[in-house]
Amino acid sequence: MRDLSSDMPVTFEGVSLRAGETTILDRLNLSITPGAPTLIVGPNGSGKTSLLRLCMGLVAPSEGRIRWGGRDTASPGRLAMLFQRPVMLRRSVADNVAYGLRHAGLPRRLRKARVEEALSRVGLLELAGRPARRLSGGEQQRVALARALAREPELLLLDEPTASLDPAATRGVEEIVLMAAQSGIKIVMASHDLGQVRRLAGDVMFMVRGRLCERARAADFFDHPSTGEAAAFVNGELVI
Ligand SMILES: Nc1ncnc2c1ncn2[C@@H]1O[C@H](COP(=O)(O)OP(=O)(O)OP(=O)(O)O)[C@@H](O)[C@H]1O
Ligand SMILES: [Mg+2]
To answer: Which of 44, 86, 204, 236: disulfide with 221, CB 3.0–4.6 Å?
Structure first.
């Protein structure tokens, strides 16, 4: 299923995104490289989701260019994205995971083992036969993670995957994310939860009004934020 070419690094060169008169993202220059998770933080409306959608190739920049492994397009199957609210098909948990594999062209005989492996990675093997839409929000988010991981992505983009989960379910998702990162998958994740950012991040991208205000190693972001906005955000004071 994997092809040989890598989509890493993902680089943004002077990337802006506009909708009519509105500038959603403003001249971003950044590069996403393999390593510990990159967490995207910033106030509501600062452009986190838009940045992830561009990374995934779901929308094209209005200006500038994005390169995946030095190429102008992302290779299908190497990237996966999870949204804040998981989208579940009206099928069993196992079928939800298998569905993505079928689309990726994995032969039927290999699918069952891959589905079981992915479900056991997220601790849901015993729920494999249950209707996915009847699961709790936290369980559905884990199914969505299994569906993404089963495709063995090189880069996994996560848009606030724990925003509506309780602390226990949140920790469950965080453990899976860390396990995926340790297995070599690059994670880029938007989050509002500063505790979560401390637990997961290798580095932080801090967005304010569509601009990349600060990019730093996580420890530096929290201990020595280099901008007033970042310091206010870390102290829970930034309201924009
Ligand atoms: N298609 C669009 N047309 C017009 N405005 C848009 C469009 N998509 C996004 N925006 C605007 O761009 C800004 C950034 O949106 P985005 O969803 O990327 O922010 P965010 O940081 O993910 O916010 P949140 O924390 O609330 O999820 C918002 O002001 C939003 O209303
Ligand atoms: Mg968002």
So the answer is: 204
In a domain, 181, yes or no: yes
* Both structure tokens of 43: 């106030």
Range of the domain at 64: 10-88+152-234
Report how far ligand 1's centroid is from the alpha carbon of 212 (Å).
15
50 within ligand 1 shell (Cβ under 6 A): yes
Residue 209 and residue 178 in contact, taking contact as beta carbons nearer than 8 Å: no
What is the model's pLDDT at position 3? Answer: 52
- DSSP assignment string, 28-93: EEEEE-SSSPEEEE-STTSSHHHHHHHHHTSS--SEEEEEETTBSSPPTTSEEEE-SS----SSBH
Structural domain includes residue 226:
yes
Ligand closest to 207 (CA) is 1
Task: Please give the average pLDDT of every successive group of 10 residues along the chain, which has 240 residues.
Answer: 76 98 97 97 96 97 97 89 92 95 87 95 96 95 95 95 91 95 97 94 97 96 93 81
Q: What is the pLDDT of residue 240?
A: 55
CATH number reported for the structural domain that contains residue 15 in this entry: 3.40.50.300
Q: What is the pLDDT of residue 4?
A: 61
Q: Judge whether 219 lies within some domain.
A: yes
* Residue 203, in any domain of the structure: yes
pTM of the model: 0.94
Count of structural domains within the chain: 1
